[in-house]
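Dear Dr. L.,

I hope this message finds you well. Following up on our conversation about the binding site, I have prepared a predicted three-dimensional model of the protein together with UFG. For your records, I am including the exact sequence and ligand specification that went into the calculation, followed by the structure tokens. Please feel free to forward this to your student if that is useful.
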Amino acid sequence: MKILVTGGTGFIGSHTVVELLETGHDVVIVDNLSNSNACVLNRIFEITGKNVEFYNIDIRNYDDMNEVFKNHVFDCCIHFAGLKAVGESVLNPILYYDNNVVGTLNLLKIMNKYNCKNIIFSSSATVYGVPEKMPITEDCKIGKGTNPYGYTKIMIEQILSDLYKSNNRWNIVLLRYFNPVGAHKSSKIGENPNGIPNNLMPYITQVAVGKRECLNIFGNDYETPDGTCVRDYIHVVDLARGHVCALKNIVENKGLNIYNLGTGNGCSVLDVVKTFEKATGIKIPYKFAPRREGDVTINYADATKAKQELGWVAENNLEDMCLDSWNWQKNNPNGYE
Ligand code: NAD
Ligand code: UFG
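The resulting structure of the complex is given below.
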């Protein structure tokens, strides 16, 4: 199939592009490089031996997007392009609603115009808010967003659902990711945050490589076995494979479908630190800090639906995730620079 990948030079997008190429799909990437680097394209070539057509454009630009659709006939769009920093979204909500929501609306207008009606969207476990039960199944209620970033995911899910209701020739898959970490085994692509990392795993790898002194663990008084928050960490390559499975499914199982992509295992912040130390032999100095606003106590997936309907299961364990994150950081201490 010929696939448009928006945000394809980003963390999850680049890993998905590799899996798509390796399973024989043709890929065109659209990305404005606002949070990624064009070097990723060379790295993708080094891994797969395949060149990908790339457009350095913003999905909000109708004319530029129109040119892309004039030049190609797509079977499906996998839509990753979006801004994702929770704190930044609180400081600059207009930017987040414009980039993520307006950007998606523009993409949908063009897809509709060119009759490309298959879309896989990068949603997030954040849509469950404070989850009504654990593990979280897809039929759990959509919660209250805790920040503008979360609301953009809730709004886009709503837009896509309404679109499907209006015309059931659309085939839509909403993939709700849990906590993506890890990197490709080749260490050629990985997560490349700007500035101080917001997320746990890149912070740990930057402590390990000597860029930061000490990890702050946000809260040790939660109602969990060791007092730190519990999350469902998932290897980015497993996540990427989930998109290839969803793609196969979108043409067979038509309609609007929602899947959690997680391992189903809840791990605490201290579990991650200890597993990282065991996998790499590197000690991570840490100290306990106050709770971070907006963090939910426990969040992990019931991923049974993805297994049953997509034939997908996560294969890598937490040790693999830590080791691959570390190998990426060690071999690319300054990311793609
Ligand atoms: P990322 O920032 O590495 O990748 C996103 C890519 O989109 C970047 O390359 C960026 O340059 C591009 N982009 C942003 N706005 C654009 C625009 N207007 N036009 C064109 N390109 C644009 O992030 P990621 O971790 O790979 O996340 C991919 C998607 O998955 C995002 O939608 C994110 O919200 C979602 N998601 C991520 C996580 C996570 O923890 N990483 C969790 C749940 C959902
Ligand atoms: N944490 C620390 N210290 C740090 C960074 C994180 O203790 O320096 C803790 C957090 O408090 C949390 C856990 O590590 O308990 C995981 O935090 P992350 O920031 O790595 O991930 P989140 O679960 O907060 O957020 C992720 C994605 C969001 C998405 C959300 C959905 O990054 O995009 O999951 O649940 F919205």
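In brief: The longest strand covers residues 118-124.

With kind regards,
A. P.
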